[in-house]
Amino acid sequence: MQNPSAPAEEIRAHVFVSGIVQGVGYRYSTAQQAKYLGVSGWVRNLPDGRVEAVFEGTQDIVEEMIRWCHQGPSAAVVKDVAVEYETPERLRGFEMRR
């Protein structure tokens, strides 16, 4: 039985979002949503038109962030969200990268 007062285990998701996701406020909105949920990590545009992001936190908030990525901001048209799970690096805070 797990100790209910023990801290929840953190996970890391490396996410690639494709579709119309650049020039529509996707990075900014992702950063705002991540900060709201308390997710750590970063987001950036890729030269091929996709958006790349890393989310770290408890499984429930990271999975909520991934669900949000499938929709994104209202101007975005998300075609695919590819997720790779990796070992957390214990990132703190969330940043937009260029």
From TrEMBL:
Query: What is this enzyme's class at the first EC digit?
Result: hydrolase
Has the keyword Hydrolase been applied to this entry? yes
Q: Which Pfam families match?
A: Acylphosphatase
Keyword terms of this UniProt record: Hydrolase
List the Gene3D superfamilies: 3.30.70.100
Domain Acylphosphatase-like residue range list = 12-98
Catalytic residues as annotated in Swiss-Prot or TrEMBL: 27, 45
Which reaction does this enzyme catalyse, per its entry?
an acyl phosphate + H2O = a carboxylate + phosphate + H(+)
Query: Which InterPro entries would you find in this protein's record?
Result: Acylphosphatase, Acylphosphatase-like_dom, Acylphosphatase-like_dom_sf, Acylphosphatase_CS
Coiled coil: which residue ranges? none
Keyword Repeat set for record: no
Per the UniProt entry, the Enzyme Commission number(s) are 3.6.1.7
Q: PANTHER family attached here?
A: ACYLPHOSPHATASE
The UniProt family comment states: Belongs to the acylphosphatase family.
Q: What is this protein called?
A: acylphosphatase
Q: Which organism is it from?
A: Funiculus sociatus GB2-A5
